[in-house]
Write a structure and sequence with these properties.
Layout lengths: L1 H16 L7 E4 L1 H8 L5 E5 L2 E13 L4 E12 L2 E16 L4 E14 L8 H9 L8 E5 H4 L11 E5 L2 E5 L1
Antiparallel strand pairs: 1-9, 2-3, 3-4, 4-5, 5-6, 6-7, 8-9
Length: 172
């Protein structure tokens, strides 16, 4: 009985005192993030009957506003006409667990500068594009964790993602 009592005390002590697995965090700098984001661009979205192709992304993190700003080149196409512009899209980030994707949700087209276009473009396309400034655009994909194949390094799906002054912190 004495040994059985000691056994249970030892077992309880071992179970209570066992080390607990801690979360693993990775912080990607803006430079590292920009390198990874290029894997999912160019992207096409249709908005107000205009097909937008976003390319040449440059990501800036804003930890104070908890937002991501993405500077992109935009090619807008409508009725065979094409217009090129530089734009800045900003929004919050969210992780889609089922698709294993980091997305820019509720993105806004904050700044838009129409570039000199060689072809003649109708005023309606130019005005239509400029009218989108300050409005929301469809969701933008930033990272696809399945495509990055982080599982090869033993990295699982993220539990939490934060924007910090050091970069994008991902807790696994």
């Amino acid at each position: 009985m004495k040994y059985l009592c000691r056994f249970w005390i030892c077992l309880f002590t071992l179970l209570v005192g066992m080390p607990v697995a801690h979360a693993f965090t990775i912080t990607f700098s803006e430079s590292q993030l920009n390198t990874m984001v290029t894997a999912v661009f160019p992207q096409q979205r249709t908005f107000d009957d205009v097909v937008f192709t976003f390319s040449d992304p440059f990501v800036e993190l804003d930890p104070l506003e908890d937002e991501v700003n993405v500077k992109v080149t935009v090619l807008a196409e409508q009725n065979g006409q094409r217009l090129q512009a530089k734009a800045e899209i900003s929004g919050r980030i969210a992780y889609h667990h089922q698709l294993a994707q980091l997305r820019l949700i509720e993105p806004r087209l904050d700044k838009l500068k129409v570039l000199d276009n060689q072809a003649v473009v109708s005023d309606s396309l130019v005005n239509g594009i400029k009218r989108l400034e300050g409005k929301r655009v469809p969701v933008i994909l930033l990272l696809d964790f399945d495509d990055l194949d982080m599982a090869a390094f033993g990295i699982q799906k993220p539990k939490r993602i934060d924007i910090t002054s050091q970069g994008l912190r991902i807790e696994i």
